[in-house]
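Hi C.,

You asked whether I'd gotten around to modeling the 422-residue construct. I have! Everything is below, sequence then structure, no commentary in between.
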Amino acid sequence: MDILIKNIRIIDPAQNIDKISDVYISNTKIILVDKKINKKPPMVIDGTDYWMFPGLTDLHCHLREPGREDEETLLSGSRAAAKGGFTRICCQPNTEPPVDNKIAVRYIYDRASLCPVEILPYGAITAGRKGLSLAPMGEMISAGAIGFSDDGNCVMDSLVFRRALEYSRIFEKVVISHSEDTNLSKSGVMNEGFISTKLGVQGIPAETENIMVYRDIQLAKLTKAKLHLAHLSTEESVKIVREAKKTIKNLSCEVTVHHLVLTEEALINYRTNAKVNPPLRKQADIEALIEGLKDGTIDAIVTDHAPHSSEEKDDGLENAPFGMLGFETALPMVFSLTKYGLKPVQLLEKLIVNPNKIIGYPVPEIKEGMEADFVIYDPSKEWLYKKKDILSKSKNSPFIGWKLKGKVLWTFCKGKIVYECR
């Protein structure tokens, strides 16, 4: 179908474009981008007061398949992603069994071919994600793994992690670190401080992350491999990375949406849907993370979409698993950060340009000749996030009941409409 989108604000961080224009799509391609296009196709979208930007890429999500299809499947997760404006999502290998071999990698691709958005799998760093010996990295690369991660588990053995970084250089693939000193965080539930003491639960100190961030950076410096630090959450981690980036060019990092908008206070009243790892921290940590986004210390914003069943999440704060949903609420939360002085184009760079550079994939752009891969967004639309409207199979979000501002109206992926707000 030919589609004409009229009078829409195009925000394209790859081209540093922010302008009002018309866009014409034909046969899955963007044919024309001009101030005024005089065509009459079967479908015309009035884009007045709407934004248009390339499809988002999520560097960090959990889709639970294989093994926990009761919590999420590749199909249900990708539908939720499309609703949130994501057209490319990178799934972590902490499934049951884990994605630690070429057969598992190919399984993800085979199942992903039926999904509305592009799904790219990471392979595990170590066999079984146990941290003891390297998984067959070469064969996973040949099957299509985009990088390596033991996310959810830290590779505590420094020699094993060094070998993983050295081996990854052969393939020029990124290694993702879950930086957590598990000897220090053991049995922890939330950020260590006054609130954890008040609630009577074991805390997780910021040093748990800071120590391992420093170690991982030192090993990246030693091996000259591509290191990506997952879900930074502390003020000190940002300082460490900022200093390291002055001399190390093979280093990147990310922050989750929820670590930018929620503090440890979200766990008051034992709210298990706000239990995540690393834990929600303090307002001072949020302010440091914001500064990291502003000055380029932090490269990417991710969802860390982590579905869990209601039965597990209702098992009390100490027993409930870590993680919350992220796809469907990401954009309203991210654009709320403009109150800190961040511009929409800066925020979109962290959701589109940098994530693709980190994994070595082409960056989608809105220009003539490119495949139609974009989002149409109403920045002023106010809506209530309701449990019944969640497309994910799980419902573990602390944002249920929140009134949000900004909504995805259409998501196009590879020339097809994969989500339409009704």
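If it helps when you're writing up: The chain has a mean pLDDT of 97.

Thanks,
B.
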